[in-house]
Amino acid sequence: MRFLVLGDSLAFGTGATGPQDTLGARLTRALTEAGSTVELHVVAVPGATSLDLAAQLQRAAAVDADLALLVVGANDLTRQVPPARAAAALGAAVRELRARGTEVLVVPTPDLSSVAWVPPAFRAVVAGICDQSRARQTAAAEAAGGVVVPVPPELTARFAGDPSLFSADRFHPSSAGYALVADALAPRLLELVTRREDDAA
């Protein structure tokens, strides 16, 4: 199974202690433990926005991926990408992957209100902006045939209450943080594998 990871620094694994602790590596182990033989291909780029997904897809054209994880959205907000453009670019990326025969799991904009540099007085505003972005992304990705799995609120609350889940930059997850995110995503990823196998049967 060819497993493709696209998106931003969270997809790349910025903040993890080593390559084995990144989201892609952890999810690859989960797929392997479930019985799949997996080739991991990471084309995610730290700092990427949704507008950069087309270039990542071009680099991954030869992969012929069976399964893709797409994590994007935080930089759309920090770099002020117009929401409609960001959602359209995400939808186009998912549509292209589906046209290639790839099952796509999308992790949309996380709740950035839990990061340390957001003052308490502004956290509700930041959370609301993230919610709006996530809603646009969800509509675009699902319309294109992707499966959207947001980071669950209870996990966001754990990040907000436990500084050890962040790396030294207090923005990206630490290895422990990536472990929790991977645990949350693995069941949905395995569901996609099962669906693909059922469709092929």
UniProtKB/TrEMBL annotation:
Signal sequence segment: none
Domain SGNH hydrolase-type esterase stretches: 5-180
Protein name: Lipolytic G-D-S-L Esterase
GO molecular function, one term: phosphatidylcholine lysophospholipase activity
Matches recorded under PANTHER family: SGNH HYDROLASE-TYPE ESTERASE DOMAIN-CONTAINING PROTEIN, THIOESTERASE 1/PROTEASE 1/LYSOPHOSPHOLIPASE L1
Pfam families named in the record: Lipase_GDSL_2
